[in-house]
Amino acid sequence: MNKVNELNIFLKNKDARFILEYFIKSYSGKTAFSTSFSIEDQVITHILSELTLQPKIFTLDTGRLPEETYKIIDRTRESYGVDIEIYFPNFDSVEKMVREKGVNLFYNSIEDRKLCCHVRKIEPLKRALKGFEVWITGLRREQSITRKNINVVEYDDINQIIKVNPLFNWTEEDVWDYIRKNNIPYNSLYDKNYKSIGCEPCTRAVRPNEDIRAGRWWWENPETKECRLHLACLNSSRMSTGFGGHDKEELFEKQK
Fold it and tell me: Which residue would you say has higher pLDDT here, 149 or 68?
């Protein structure tokens, strides 16, 4: 039985706080948390700030984030007194991509969208995780069909790192209950019916009865809605190439 299986058995019925404390202590100085300032990530930041004075927290600034996200970055820093290291994409790679493919290339095809995600997110993530052994994330099973089989502990083959999902079995209601109970700051876009927030041109508010990630890359089929940050650990990794029935022209008008 490998280490990941052993950890999953050991942590099977443990709560998020126990899981986080275990890895902070067991992998001292080798554990990093990546935040996108989602409600899930804000819960984890809150718990980490109670467990250690200076948790290793980083975020990826793609250069296309909403203004509301920048505001919650500053507010989180001020509220918890923590350092949040910001990683940016390589400017040469961005310039080359935009020169060859255009500013909004992600609307052209699944392949071009994945290229944009690779340049703006995947490559900076590799730099951010360098030297660490454990990567903490805010993934939950309920978030999408591509995440329904995640475990509390996984192994990321691409980044060669143990990946920990302490909220893997939380519901959205669980997250909001914790947010309200502990007065945790969150991105104001959630109050405008945003459920999952990424880059500004690739995110919209969701309609009633739509799933949590319907507002991310809404022109694609649900099976393709991953930026590949988490693909190495997802069981539903075979992606289709459809645009979910949307014409290319529709993609330049964000659905409200």
Answer: 68
